[in-house]
């Protein structure tokens, strides 16, 4: 496995997340704009981490999380959402998310969430 897959239907959010992670030294190996594209890239890439937008037109992030986690349980997932509700956080955790990140995107909070999951950039994830 290698790298991070960023999934968001909004190009500005997708690019911002990828840029923050890349500038911090993480390897972003793919960016997907839809659930269907994300599933294809997920199987091709076998990433270490997937950042998932919760609300997308073709497939919501929670459904996508369940599909991906079902086929690759060792991959880590970070749900990105603008919905700040305890029920969403609980559902994300029960569905297999490793963390929940609230939009609007800030460099420090995104990097804190990713480093908690993956460790510092260029380090192997602990088993």
TrEMBL record:
<dbReference type="InterPro" id="IPR001789">
    <property type="entry name" value="Sig_transdc_resp-reg_receiver"/>
</dbReference>
<dbReference type="InterPro" id="IPR050595">
    <property type="entry name" value="Bact_response_regulator"/>
</dbReference>
<dbReference type="Pfam" id="PF00072">
    <property type="entry name" value="Response_reg"/>
</dbReference>
<dbReference type="GO" id="GO:0000160">
    <property type="term" value="P:phosphorelay signal transduction system"/>
</dbReference>
<protein>
    <submittedName>
        <fullName>Response regulator receiver domain protein (CheY-like)</fullName>
    </submittedName>
</protein>
<feature type="modified residue" description="4-aspartylphosphate">
    <location>
        <position position="53"/>
    </location>
</feature>
<feature type="domain" description="Response regulatory">
    <location>
        <begin position="3"/>
        <end position="118"/>
    </location>
</feature>
<keyword id="KW-0597">Phosphoprotein</keyword>
<dbReference type="InterPro" id="IPR011006">
    <property type="entry name" value="CheY-like_superfamily"/>
</dbReference>
């Amino acid at each position: 496995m290698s790298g991070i897959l960023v999934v968001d239907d909004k190009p500005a959010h997708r690019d911002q997340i990828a840029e923050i992670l890349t500038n911090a030294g993480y390897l972003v190996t793919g960016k997907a704009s839809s659930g269907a594209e994300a599933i294809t890239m997920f199987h091709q890439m076998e990433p270490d981490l997937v950042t998932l937008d919760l609300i997308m037109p073709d497939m919501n992030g929670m459904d996508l999380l369940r599909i991906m986690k079902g086929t690759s349980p060792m991959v880590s997932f970070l749900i990105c959402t603008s919905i700040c509700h305890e029920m969403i956080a609980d559902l994300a955790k029960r569905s297999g998310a490793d963390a929940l990140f609230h939009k609007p995107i800030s460099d420090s909070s995104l990097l804190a969430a990713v480093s908690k999951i993956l460790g510092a950039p260029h380090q192997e994830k602990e088993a």
